Amino acid sequence: MTITDTIADKLRDEILRGVILPGKFLSSESQICERFEASRGTVRNALKVLINDGIIESVPSKGYRVVPAKR
C-alpha cells in the first residue's frame, strides 16, 4: 500500500465515521502534509482519489469539502 492510499483510506474512514461531517472542509493541504509527513504532491493525489470516489469536492479558493448529503 502506498502513502497515497494510506492517506486516502484514513481520510475516507474519518468521513464515513462522521469525524468530518458532510459540508465541512478538510484541513488544509499543508496541515495534511504535516500530519502524514508526506509531500504536497502525495497529498494532492490522495485528495484526487477521494474526489474521484465522490466523497469530497474541491472548492476554489476555499479547499476541499466533504460532499454534502443529498436530500
Describe, in plain words, how this protein is organized in 3D.
A hairpin with a 3-residue loop joins strand 1 (56-59) and strand 2. The protein is 49% helix and 11% strand. Strands 1-2 form a two-stranded antiparallel ribbon. With 71 residues, it is mainly alpha-helical. Helix 1 crosses helix 3 and helix 2 crosses helix 3. It has helices spanning 3-16, 29-36, 40-52, and strands spanning 56-59, 63-66.
Secondary-structure map:
Layout: H1 3-16, H2 29-36, H3 40-52, E1 56-59, E2 63-66
Helix pairs in contact: 1-3, 2-3
What key attributes describe this structure?
2 strands, 11% strand, globular
Give the helix tally.
3
Number of strands: 2
Which H/E pattern describes the elements? HHHEE
Give the averaged pLDDT, no decimals.
95
Structural class given helices, strands, pairing?
mainly alpha
* Helix content percent band: 40-55%
What are the segments in which pLDDT stays under 50 over at least 5 consecutive residues?
Answer: none
| Biggest sheet features | 2 strands, antiparallel
State the distance separating the first and last CA atoms. 35 Å
Q: Which term fits the overall shape?
A: globular
Q: How much of the sequence is in beta strands?
A: 5-15%
Radius of gyration: 11 Å
Strand order of the largest sheet: 1-2
